[in-house]
Amino acid sequence: MSNPIKAGLAIGIAGGIVIAFFGGLSGILVALIGGAAVGLILSSWEHFEKRDVAVRQSATAGAVAGILMVAGQFIYQFVIVPLSGKTAVSVDAVTFIVALLTFALAVALAVFIGYTSTLEQGRRRVALFGLLALFLVLYPFLDGGMSVLYKTNPSANPFVDQPFINQGLNLNWLGTMITILTFAVLALGLNIVVGYAGLLDLGYAAFFAIGAYTTGLIYSPYISSQVGADWPWLRFVWTFWLVIWIAAAVAAVFGLILGSPTIPLRGDYLAIVTLGFGEIVPIVFRNLTAITLTLPFTNICIVGCGGKPLNFTGGESGVNPIGRPWLPGVAYFQTGDYLPWYFLILAIIALTVFLINRLYQSRLGRAWTALREDELAAAAMGINTTNTKLMAFAMGATFSGFAGAFYGSYIGAIFPSVFDFTVSVIILVMVIFGGLGNMVGVIIGGMIIMMADRLLLPQIAGTLKAIVNTTIVPNIQNPATKEFVSTTVDPLQWRQLLFGLTLVVMMLVRPEGLIPSARRRAELRSEAPAGTEPLSIQEADAGSPLMSVDSDPLDAPSQ
Amino acid sequence: MATAAVKPRSRQQPISWARIILAVVVLYAILLFGPIAGLDIPRIARDIAANPSLLVQQLIVGITNGAIIAIVALGYTLVYGIIELINFANADVFMLGGFMALSIIGNMGVTANSSAGLKIAGLVLAFVGAGLLGAVLNWTIERFAYKPLRNAPRLAPLISAIGVSFMLQNIGLIWGGLRPFFPIMGLNAASPKSMPEVLPRIPLLPASSGIEFGTKDLIVVVTALVLWVALRLFIQYTTLGKAMRATAQNRDASKIVGIHVDRVIAVTFLIGGALAGAAGCLVGFYNNTIVFTMGFTFGLRSFTAAVLGGIGNVTGAALGGVLIGVVAAFSDQYLSSRWTNAWIFTILIIILIFRPLGLLGEAAGEKA
Question: Distance between CA atoms of B87 and B269, rounded to whole angstroms?
Answer without folding.
Answer: 9
